[in-house]
Design a protein that fits this description.
395 residues; alpha+beta; Elongation Factor Tu (Ef-tu), domain 3; OB fold (Dihydrolipoamide Acetyltransferase, E2P); 3 domains; five-stranded mixed β-sheet
């Protein structure tokens, strides 16, 4: 190779390939464009995810939408209340003393006038013996005064005595008769005091509660902390009725003698027939309710005072079978709130609250009928907070 060829070879090796230079910057620009577009998207979704993860969880109470069928679905109104005995008394003594005898226990039945308990009465019995003796003495004095009076009366008639002595005998006789009456009244007072130590049943009924035991002090007013006021509480079990509070806005649906169905919480599968006996003519201002009293048409030993019960106020006359079987969906009243003039509920799905508009219907005690918006079994939030909104995490 000559010198000229060597120079040309060296120069060709140093030549720059411009086509290769143009290709590399083009690919880099495309990747840069992709990165500029992808990074904001990734940052945005990462921010949303992080915000969702760190968002505070709101603790709430929930309940499921339930289905009512049968008579509950066809009832004009459903209310809750308690079984109350209309004839009930806390039986106590009129006297103060120590309980000596207690003849009954909880659940025992007693007839009117039957002795339930007795107080210690030895002191009163001693007073009774003294009162009887005083009455006998007063009667003897009265007989003596009467004889003296008759004797003076005859002596005056024969002229062997004066009118003055007759007047003295007359006054003595009158005083003796008054003493007899006083002693008789005293004897009666002691007998009443003795009877006050005997505690009797005021009516035929069942003993519900025992408040005192043998040996305890019993006082009418129970002013001392160590004394008892009442010995037992008893009730006439045939007078049991359900007292249910009805909202003022629904009281127009309740009619005297209207048919009802009573369901005790203790026996939810058993239905008692009843009727509206009385609507108490006053309202509770604080709760805006009116008390109704529902009587049992038939009653058995399972019904006990203070049991909680649900009352279905039925329409007049028998409802048709088709109507009685139409189911309705209900939710607790506290689950329904108003936003922007529309009634809504918050349903919970996978721990997230969702606002759902609903259409409400009749009220069934503490629940409200949902005509549209919810399905049976959906979980709703009770008493939702004002700041709660769709998308909030709940627990």
């Amino acid at each position: 190779m000559n010198e000229q060829d060597a120079k040309n070879a060296d120069l060709s090796a140093l030549r720059i390939d411009r086509g290769t230079k143009k290709a590399i910057p083009g690919r880099r620009k495309r990747w840069l464009y992709v990165l500029w577009l992808a990074v904001p998207v990734v940052l945005y979704f990462g921010y949303r995810t992080a915000l969702h993860e760190v968002a505070p969880t709101v603790k709430v109470q929930t309940a499921a939408a339930q289905v009512l069928a049968g008579s509950e679905a066809s009832a004009d109104l459903v209310a809750t209340g308690y079984v109350v005995a209309q004839v009930k008394a806390a039986v106590s003594s009129k006297a103060t003393g120590r309980l000596r005898v207690l003849n009954v226990e909880e659940g025992d039945k007693a007839q009117a006038g039957e002795v339930l308990a007795e107080l210690e009465s030895d002191d009163i019995r001693a007073e009774l013996d003294l009162a009887r003796a005083n009455l006998k003495r007063a009667r003897a004095d009265s007989v003596e005064a009467f004889l003296a009076y008759r004797r003076q009366e005859k002596l005056v008639q024969t002229g062997h005595s004066t009118q003055e002595l007759l007047d003295v005998a007359t006054a003595a006789h009158a005083r003796a008769n008054a003493e007899v009456e006083a002693m008789a009244a005293n004897l009666k007072a002691v007998e009443v005091a003795l009877e006050s130590t005997v505690i009797r049943a005021p009516f035929a009924g069942t003993v519900l509660t025992k408040h005192a035991d043998v040996g305890e002090m019993v006082a009418p007013l129970a002013s001392a902390t160590s004394s008892r006021g009442a010995v037992v509480t008893m009730a006439d079990m045939t007078s049991l009725e359900v007292e249910a509070d009805v909202s003022e806005s629904n009281i127009n649906k309740v009619k005297i003698n209207g048919p009802c169905e009573i369901v005790l919480d203790a026996y939810p599968n058993y239905i008692y027939r009843g009727h509206v006996k009385k609507i108490v003519p006053t309202a509770d201002r604080a709760r805006a309710t009116v008390m109704t009293k529902v009587a049992f048409d038939t009653i058995d030993d399972r019904v006990l005072p203070e049991m909680s019960a649900r009352v279905n106020f039925l329409p007049s006359g028998e409802a048709s079978p088709a109507v009685r079987q139409n189911p309705v969906i209900v939710v607790p009243k506290s689950a329904i709130t108003t936003r922007d003039g529309q009634k809504i509920v918050f349903a919970v799905t996978d721990g997230i609250a969702k606002q759902i508009p609903v259409e409400t219907g009749r009220e069934f005690g503490k629940t409200t009928e949902i005509l549209a918006g919810l399905r049976a079994g959906e979980v709703v939030i009770l008493s939702p907070a004002g700041a709660l909104k769709s998308g909030d995490k709940v627990e």
